[in-house]
Amino acid sequence: MTAPARLLSVRLQGFKSFAERTHVTFGSGISAVVGPNGSGKSNLADALRWALGEQGRALRTRKAEDVIWAGSERRPALGMADVQLVLDNADALLPVEFGTVELGRRLYRSGENEYLLNRQRVRLRDLVDLLEAAHLAENAFLFIGQGMVDQALALRPEERRPLFEEVAGVRRHERRRRRAEEQLVESEANLARVEDVVAELRPQVRRLAAQAEQQANRRDAGDDLAAALLAAAHARWHTVSTRLATAETRLAGTREAIEAAMRTLAEREQAAAGVADRLAARAASEADARREADAARDGLTTARLAAAAAAQDEAALLRDLERLADERQSVETGLAADRRAVALLPVAVDPSLEADLRGAEAAVAAAEAELALVGSADRAADADRAVARRTEAARTADLDLARRRRDELRQQADAEAVRAATAEQARADAEAGRGEAADRLSEAVAEERRARDAEAATAALAAAAIEASARAAERVAAVTARAAASRARLEAVEARIEAAESDALARAAIAAGGTRVTEGLSLDPAMLAAVGAVLSAAASDLVVGRPDVTGLTDRHGRVAVEQALHEQASLGGTERLRAAVMAAGGGLLADAVRDDPSGAARKLLGRAVWLPDLAACLAVQELLPPGWVAVPRDGGAIVGDVVVELGPAAGPLALRAEAERLAVDLGRTDEAARATRLERDQRALDEGAARDQLATARAVAAAATDRRREAEVAEATAARRAETAAREAAWLLAQADRLRAGATRAAEELAALERAASEAGVALTMPVDTSAAGAAGSPARILANRVAELR
Fold it and tell me: Crossing angle, helix 351-501 and helix 652-759, to 10 degrees?
């Protein structure tokens, strides 16, 4: 049965020759990668080593970046190498709660490494510990190269031991033991250094404790002050936030009211526009109705005139009919009388009379026919005169109606012209108000721009002031820290001087009448470092007599014997040394002593020379007699005839010089601290003033913004008013023009009617004779009389 594969797959991208993303999957059993030389087989094995944490010992590279694809003629270089291994962890070989574990490693050209566990970043130490638990970390036999089997078989028994230890897992514990031992050694070295530091710092514990107590008091006071400031600031912030919330609420309400008013105004303007449109449509329909009414009125007038004419014609016909009936009755009455008269005549009738009678009857019939024709002509003439009178009445009525319509249209046109003039004046006023509102808006915008520019400039000044205040505070902190450090160093040096001068031996020697070697000593300042280096150990000594030395045997330390100080030192054999020292620009160190009441310093410096530097001291080392030393001017070393002491311990002279220097530096630092505090206070005042100016500028800018918004609302309102007034004025002007055009047409119609009336004026003004003479002289009356005579 084939065992399942532990390594499931490998994904590579940018690693050595794998420029493109490559995914290699491994099945159960043995997987073989076959290919010619240079195809990348070894690079695949290197990728496995590299992903498991190999740091370059077996990757055939000189530096870490060599594993990243370096580019070719066709493909550019990449900036990252990435390898991901997928391992089967169903048997919990790796101590993680995952059935499948994905280990990855990425390297960027910047040198940054990333180690991934299931796509989560981990440390290399964590990855090594995880692999070590599965015997996969630093296992030399995890990857068996060509020839390693033969080498393992050819190993001697003692050489095979590491192989069995690696297989058995002993080497892992051995590596842990070595690592623990190395960490233990490192911890011991750190402990020794810590003990040295503690021993050096122990004398400063009490002083530091006092300083710590003072600093704690200061910190408590500072914390209390900061808490009070924060409480005050919080109260101010709460008050300001409450006022701001109230102001924002009022502002939101005002904006909502303005928006509602604007919406209402827009709706009303739309309604007014709709009303204006409906009025215009109603005016147009009214004009059409008026035209239709005028046409109907004209038709009605014509119909009335026609009815009046018909009524007059009917009355005339009735009158003619009555008249003819009367005439007929009278003619019939005469005819009946004539017939009766004829009947009474004798029977014998004269034939001539009969002929005359027939002639008379024929004449009567002709006269009656002519009378009928004349009556018809008279009736036609009467009808024509009646029609002429009716036409005259109709024309008079038409002229009156045309005059009234012309006058009415002129009055309406004048009224509409007045209203149009009023509307035009209102439009001009609205346009003027709109221009003023636009001017105020422009001024408000310019004012807001100036206020915003001033706010920006003030903000820049405030930022500069805040930055300057912060820099001043930083300088105060730095100077204060430097002063504290200088004060601590000065106190440490003074403590060392005090400790050196107050030991038991010094107290006993002083009690025995001894004096210090450096008491009353005056030196050349330029040679202080060199003298301090030579006297580093003896400068704290006390000068006592030989008999008193035996009384100090129960003490530990050094003293100088007073009688020995007055014995002259032998300078024999130093001529060459002195010549070489003088030639190198040096001299005897005892010559640097200006005043030495005890003579101890001159005695101790009698076998010392100084030279400009260490190289010159080493050049004359072979000329130094036993007991002689050479020191450079800076005191950085002491060159003996055999031994060279580098960086000698600082003696009391150097400590005192260091204390004096530190005191001077501390005074300068304190003065600088006072100056920087004054500058900080001034900067704080400037910052407060700048913040106040910024707040004022922001308030001014906010007020300018409010005025600009009010001006925008006023300008929009004025614009809408101007547009409404313009529409109303245009509509009224159109109405006035329409009425003027109607008045013009009415005047033209009236003129046409007057011309027609003037043309028909002759027929209308002819007199009609209605008298009895006229009636008697008429043809009809003459014929009637003739008929009566004939009868």
Answer: 180
